[in-house]
Amino acid sequence: MPVNQLETVPSCNLVPSATASGSYQSSFDPYDLSSDDEEYLTPNNVAETTPGRSDRAARLLTAARLYLNSPLEALKNWGQINPKLNDYHSDPMEISSTFWLPDITDWWRQQEETH
Amino acid sequence: MLAVLITLTPGRRNEFIDCQKAKVCIAVLPIMDVKRRWNSTLELLKRAIRLREFTREWLQNPKYAECWPLFTTQNEWTIVKYVMEVLRPFRYWTLWISKRHTVTLHHVITVYNDMFDHMDGVMRALAKKKTPWKEDLFFAVKLARQKLSKYYAEVTPTTGMLLISVHILDPCRKLQSFRKWDKGMDINPEDETSSTTKSQEAFLKYVENE
Fold first, then answer.
1. Is 70 exceeded by the pLDDT of residue A85?
2. Residue A10: closest CA among chain B residues belongs to which residue?
3. Residue ranges of the domains in chain B?
4. Is B196 near chain A, with CB under 8 Å?
């Protein structure tokens, strides 16, 4: 594949069945780069499952469990459970977490009741 | 720097375009970095690789002998290609999400997984390298991963529940990603302690309790 070929990004709304890092071939042959030593950046190597997944799964499930146990209490206490939450007050991305803080179920219920 | 020199005057720009005539369908110019746009360096590198042959030709003109120190060596192109490879999922998902005209929330877990796995793979591949640029790249990827982890850590009970729910509701995914998590950790998805079972239970409880 020539290096200047444009990368195609699907325009439909379905997520690709493969992942960007895994099955999509790069625009160059990574094996060509193996000049100085041992292994190199190969698709198999990159796509391998990582131990960090257990942490990520645990974090998400813990959050969900807390929400299910007591949604309102969880919102109050989460800052103590998850201290990293306060690291980004100066970051524009912080707005995303603030946006979702209101209980979405209550919000939907209000919408249903008022319309 | 080379992009600045090539696009400095209309004459230079035309010369560079002329280099490409009859060789490519659309002649283009190198692009410059815009610090405020995270992906502009990546676009710059991508364009530089595309124009590699023409840049070399342009530089061979004795008129631009003062620019010869800017000639990119084979080793430097290798580094450029590697950096592009490292950033590929970031570019891919950024473009993919920005092209969507509908909800993308149900893809969040998939996107995060892909980027984390990619970076972990890159770090594994570079961990034992001794070449200075590879060591630098390892350090850069490590910092990038920390940054991504901090964003991921911003999940709250509400968003966590929401992400799990919308992911399961996606008819293309359902519990697939959770099963993949479990299999990757060598856990039977049918086990009570598996991510699949826990996610499924959480989802059902969330729907039924409301």
1. no
2. B96
3. 2-72, 87-153, 155-210
4. no
